[in-house]
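Homework help board

Subject: predicted structure for assignment chain

Our instructor gave us this sequence and asked us to write out the predicted structure in token form, then describe one feature. I got the tokens but I'm not sure how to describe them. Can anyone check?
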Amino acid sequence: MEYKISVLIFIRNIKGEFLMLERKKSPNQGLWSPIGGKLKMETGESPHQCAARETFEEIGLKIDPSQLHLFCMIAEKAYEGNNHWLMFLFDSQLAIHELPEAIDEGTFSFFSREQIDNLSIPETDRQGLWAIYDNYRDSFVSARANCEPGQPLEIVVEQVIEGWESKS
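My token output:
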């Protein structure tokens, strides 16, 4: 299976609610997730550059990479049985003030952290990514997820660096 590299960006509004995208396309079609996208590997784009680019492309917010805190790197093995994913998760230090307009990939809404637990979200997000966000967003964590079809989802935190901050 091929490896793909992507980013997810956790963005809040001024009330502290999270921006979520109800996806119209695979992967995760019909499910809610933070915004994000794939690295342009052919240009040598870094995960921070990708997160800033995707934030602008998807919601029109210009963000400097220094305003993004990298809090997780997670390797997902055999996601949906199609690909392996290496994902970089960022917490935006910049809040947005209004709901973005719908895009080709889906529509947006704001949710409190508690509401997200009741949304239709990918199981890897429910069991792993949101728990990682809740526990490690001010640190840095490396994790892996075994998503092989027919196997129970297994998420393992491999390393935690407390108090780590990304540098620009």
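Reply (TA_rk): Your tokens look well-formed. For the description, you could write something like this. The beta strands are 3-10, 18-23, 32-33, 35-38, 68-79, 83-92, 106-111, 140-146, 154-161. That's the kind of observation they're looking for.
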